[in-house]
Design brief:
Length: 143
């Protein structure tokens, strides 16, 4: 079952829509952290800022959540879940434009944000700012 779920989730991560309006992307990092504070803050931000979107609000992210990939009890290993989300997340960032809002306090070097999203943001010429700051200046705090 879990290998079938992995295959289906892999296809979703590769194929489902991840597009968002300009200046609407909101990210958070909770990998390897004891607290879900960054995620909670991101969801609160989205509630207060209509039009803002996290990956969970895209067709791709919503389908992955529906498939149970927001929880470790879906039958996949933590590494498999992270691999699926990393694929979807890279596509999400590659499609983004404008400013990104990021709740990444204490982001672990092993996190999807540090390993996948931040490098993709820096490579995406259509993203200029993170949290109102030049994206390259923002990234310096994670060196």
């Amino acid at each position: 079952m879990s290998s079938e779920l992995f295959k289906k989730a892999f296809r979703v991560a590769h194929d489902y829509d991840v597009s968002t309006p300009e200046n609407s992307v909101v990210l958070y990092s909770i990998s390897y952290q004891k607290s879900k504070e960054n995620r909670d803050n991101a969801f609160d931000y989205v509630k207060r800022h209509p039009g803002s979107m996290m990956i969970e609000h895209t067709d791709c992210g919503a389908k992955l959540v529906e498939m149970g990939l927001s929880s470790s009890d879906c039958g996949l290993s933590a590494e498999e879940i992270a691999d699926i989300w990393a694929i979807a997340s890279k596509r999400f960032i590659d499609a983004a434009k404008g400013e990104v809002i990021a709740f990444v306090k204490g982001a672990d070097p092993r996190s999807v944000f540090r390993k996948q999203e931040l490098p993709s943001i820096l490579d995406n010429e259509n993203i200029t700012r993170i949290n109102g700051e030049n994206k390259f200046n923002f990234a310096q705090r994670f060196k």
